[in-house]
Write a structure and sequence with these properties.
The chain has one domain. The longest helix has 36 residues. The protein is an all-alpha fold. It has 13 helices and no strands.
Length: 298
């Protein structure tokens, strides 16, 4: 029996790692695909509408599994706040960031989320800023400096709006994560994801439709395929695989596994968009990943 139990745990871990790889690769590919889509459609409309469609698809998956979509009345306000920050903030700010940044730059800046989680936990959760957390922030900032500073001062100033948007998106996700820990949302994972994606993306989609007035005729075949990818893979498949991985792996292991996301993003941007992949990008990626890894350990 112990051997069978051990073999069962190993099999579940292997399945969990498989789900984790699928989610991380899917999210990593999102950066170059979204960057290309912005050549055809505006950012808020593209990301917001894909999110709404993804939320509907997630809700259908929930119902197909026989789960309930009902939300306990006491957590509605918390659900709205966390969804607006973690999903809405990330969706809007990262879409805007890609107007100024390359896909690889956005991927590296976006993965700094665990660093901001570690520091925001101090004022909100009362978790002290340990030496490891201080090192993680300094290391991540060093990676960002290498990434942005290598093109000279003028180029860095031109990209400043994108840098600020990408970091704002990462901070929003970090704040939403910390608030979720402080005010737990007592719902099953997939129904919670459906509501969070829907609540977070609805205002982004509305603002995009009003201000950007996107035209479906502007989308090429590749553009439509990109929209389908963002809807089905980014907002549905990746979330389903992520929660499936969390159910089989320790949370810390799953979090460290997401470090694959920027690696895939940088490599895919080089392959798909022919973005530069030189020493500066590799060093910036390595330093930033080091800071994130330290934050996850703290």
């Amino acid at each position: 029996m112990p051997q069978n139990s051990h073999a069962g745990r190993d099999r579940q871990s292997l399945i969990g790692f498989t789900y984790l790889v699928v989610a991380s690769v899917g999210w990593g590919l999102n950066f170059p695909i979204m960057k290309h889509l912005l050549t055809e459609w505006p950012p808020l409309s593209a990301r917001g509408l894909c999110g709404i469609a993804g939320a509907i698809a997630l809700a259908l998956i929930v119902r197909a599994r026989g789960e309930s979509l009902s939300v306990p009345r006491p957590i509605w306000l918390r659900l709205f706040l966390v969804s607006t920050l973690a999903i809405g903030g990330w969706t809007a700010f990262m879409g805007l960031a890609l107007l100024w940044l390359s896909a690889s730059e956005a991927a590296i800046l976006g993965i700094t989320i665990p660093v901001w989680v570690a520091f925001l936990a101090w004022p909100i959760l009362g978790e002290r800023v340990s030496p490891l957390r201080a090192i993680s922030l300094i290391t991540a900032l060093a990676g960002i400096a290498v990434l942005i500073g290598g093109n000279g001062f003028d180029a860095s100033v031109e990209k400043l709006p994108g840098i600020l948007c990408a970091l704002a998106g990462a901070v929003c996700v970090g704040l939403g994560t910390v608030l979720t820990k402080h005010f737990p949302l007592s719902m099953p994972a997939l129904p919670l994801a459906a509501w969070q994606v829907g609540i977070g993306c609805l205002p982004i989609a509305i603002i995009g439709l009003v201000l950007e007035q996107p035209q479906p005729a502007d989308l090429s075949t590749v553009g439509w395929v990109s929209m389908v990818y963002l809807t089905i893979v980014q907002f549905c498949l990746c979330y389903v695989c992520w929660f499936a991985a969390l159910s089989r792996l320790p949370a810390a292991t799953a979090s460290i596994g997401t470090l694959l996301v920027p690696v895939v993003g940088v490599l895919a941007a080089a392959a798909m968009l022919h973005e530069p992949l030189g020493l500066r990008q590799v060093v910036a990626l390595a330093i930033t990943l080091g800071g994130v890894a330290v934050a996850l350990r703290s």
